[in-house]
């Protein structure tokens, strides 16, 4: 505990976010790392139910609404891996996200630099918000030109961030396992690959590096990473609301935004949704405070949920089918078959025509939600079985293999 106390003192001494000290202390505390107390976890899941097992409740809320989908990247669409450069998107997840984006306006909001996350995802039809939402761009047209949705909330900080990156590279170069990542309008200092006794050195180096610019920069903590960000009133929640606005979807009773994320910075988006009647879904294998209503355990369960969402999207319960207005930068699938439709979308329509065919209620059944629930869930028992199958198919228990191996949950609660 002595090391934790001096950690807190260091952070307090530099005026860094005090919650950082507390969360780092929690991460260092081996008791906290054991988090697998079933009673605690189960009680937490009562408060934040698994959306796979409660998909019928979800359907009741979304039926007839125009859903907009917002997704975090690391830890949500891809498993956490040791080398950030290896967090590639699986082809299966790419296909699933593509199908989601065909049915609902879809954005990825990431702490990564936008260019990097776009490179991983490779879906030009999405909206992207990089650098924790400080760098926003709309879908690209056939010639990879950006549609006019670009917005950078902290553009003037770029030279300071460049300088900070170089300074941190120097300061961290002798700490075994530490690495620095330039995320365009913020910088990540990674300590995932450091021995525990070196974590504090990373914290000290980061705090020393920002000490002279405390009025302009602040430090937050993610999963075994310290993220240095400009002091601007902007975060993933603000980015989500901004995107709703440019899409023309803000404050409309028939619009339902969904956000899926796994990390502390995603809580800003969950809180924004609490205020704007959306649905937050936290990806976590452990109980932790969250403003998200629902949970899933890992990216495999995220994929399972997104597939169920696609099923719902093909039903006539999807509010976009009856909404003829194409919103800015995104058009409902049934309006996308003009010659101006992006090639990728047209190809998808060719490949998966069934995607465009609404699921209709069986004869005599007028409750579309029930029909979709029946089609998608094949009641709750099937959903539970699917969830169990997903949980048993790898996830946290997958065998580690070099850098691309998911970090075992017990060893890396973060
Ligand atoms: O908002 P996100 O898309 O979740 O980005 C947050 C950070 O994600 C990445 O780091 C995390 O994932 C890495 C790859 O799995 C892992 O090695 C690292 O320990 C995690 O913290 C990214 O590398 C960071 O720059 C982002 O800030």
Automatic annotation (TrEMBL):
Enzyme class, first EC level, given as a word: hydrolase
Pfam assignment, any one: Trehalose_PPase
EC number(s) from the headed UniProt entry: 3.1.3.12
Record key words, sorted: Hydrolase
GO biological process: trehalose biosynthetic process
UniProt keyword annotation of Ribosomal protein present: no
InterPro entries: HAD-like_sf, HAD-SF_hydro_IIB, HAD_sf, OTSB-like, Trehalose_PPase
Cofactor(s), names only, from the UniProt record: a divalent metal cation
GO terms, molecular function: trehalose-phosphatase activity
Record pathway: Glycan biosynthesis; trehalose biosynthesis
Entry superkingdom: Eukaryota
Catalysed reactions listed for this entry: alpha,alpha-trehalose 6-phosphate + H2O = alpha,alpha-trehalose + phosphate
PANTHER family per the UniProt record, alphabetical: TREHALOSE 6-PHOSPHATE PHOSPHATASE
Functional summary from the UniProt entry: Removes the phosphate from trehalose 6-phosphate to produce free trehalose.
Family: Belongs to the trehalose phosphatase family.
Protein name from the UniProt record: Trehalose 6-phosphate phosphatase
Taxon lineage: Eukaryota, Viridiplantae, Chlorophyta, core chlorophytes, Chlorophyceae
